[in-house]
Amino acid sequence: KQRLAIITSGGDAPGMNASIRAITLKALQNGYDVIGFIAGFHGLINAEFIQLDLKSVDNIIHKGGTILKTARCKDMFNEQGVKKASCTLNNLDIESLIVIGGDGSFKGAQALSEYWHGQIIGIPGTIDNDINGTDQTIGFWTAIDTALDCIDKIRDTADAFDRIFVIEVMGRDCGFIAMESGIASGAQQIICHELISDEADFIQQLLISIKKASKQSYPQSYVIVVAENALSFSTAELAKKISEYTQVDTRSAILGYVQRGGAPVAMDRVLATQLGIKAVEAINKQKRNLMIGMSKGEIITFPLSQTGLKNKTNKDLIKRLEQFSFNLTI
Ligand code: F6P
């Protein structure tokens, strides 16, 4: 029997379990022996794994996190670690490996491909949606919905107090979560790296526009969604600057890790399932060193070596934000 292994690696993302399930079911159906390494590349290095069968993937499609555990594994950035991982795969007679994770995990996968000559297939799983070559990553839509739910709740208190709120969402260095949750929550401002070339000038314009709005009776609540790492100073400091400049009570909130947890929304479960099935099909066709992604609504394959992080001047994101900005003065 041909042996296929799965790992989940890097930041967990809702929908990873749905992907593990789809891969396992499809691979079992195609006659493979399926195993899952524990805690990403750590499991490969330390030969820690479990057998995956019908029972192990039963009733997991709706669960957040990952049944295989995950980790950020620094050892994959040194030769010794990569060689160990490669040895484990050879010793266990594994012929193909599916890596579900983000950019760091794909880098680990590429390092591995230099020593191990089995088939490696990547599946993009990260809430950040920052992987080049795919329009969507597993977990992204769930994170947006979670952020949205929190922003809506904060909007209630912002409205009750006529306060300004600065709300920080995740995304590492990418503004997609801020953009989508900002659009969906009707945020008055969305701040992300992609929009900032000169920070001092950007902040000055922002303060002027907030002050202008605060002098009008509309809107009564003012919500600013900011992507983490977008600014060189903290979200709390931004709130302080706004408060001082406008004389309006301004508070800040960091949504943090809540955005990574919870049951995956339908879109993430479906995407994870589609990508998982396609990954096994790619293995059947003897493909290697590919990422399975989604582009313009189609499931596609993309060279793993060309993935990397989405560019900071991401034009798609800027265009989409422009499309949704109203620029009203009342
Ligand atoms: O990549 C997912 C993510 O949640 C990012 O949005 C965030 O910057 C990072 O992981 C946090 O990493 P850690 O879990 O290592 O603190």
Please describe the topology of this protein.
Blueprint lengths: L2 E6 L7 H14 L3 E5 L3 H5 L3 E3 L27 H13 L2 E8 L1 H11 L5 E6 L15 H22 L2 E6 L6 H10 L3 E3 L7 H17 L6 E6 L7 H12 L3 E5 L11 H19 L5 E6 L2 E6 L11 H9 L7
Parallel strand pairs: 1-2, 1-4, 4-5, 5-10, 6-8, 6-9, 7-8
Antiparallel strand pairs: 2-3, 10-11
Helix pairs in contact: 1-9, 5-6, 7-8
Bound molecules: 6-O-phosphono-beta-D-fructofuranose (F6P).
6-O-phosphono-beta-D-fructofuranose binds next to loops.
Heteromolecules bound: 6-O-phosphono-beta-D-fructofuranose
Q: Based on Cα principal axes, name the global outline.
A: elongated
Terminal CA distance reads 70 Å
Largest sheet: 7 strands, mixed
Compressed to H and E, one letter per element, the order equals EHEHEHEHEHEHEHEHEHEEH
| Approximate strand percentage | 15-25%
Low-confidence stretches: none
- Fraction of residues in helix: 40-55%
* Number of extended strands: 11
Task: Give me the side-by-side strand order of the main sheet.
Answer: 3-2-1-4-5-10-11
Radius of gyration: 22 Å
DSSP summary: helix tally: 10
SS content category: alpha/beta
Structure at a glance:
This protein is an alpha/beta fold and 330 residues long. Helix content is 40%, strand content 18%. The protein is elongated, with a radius of gyration of 22 Å.
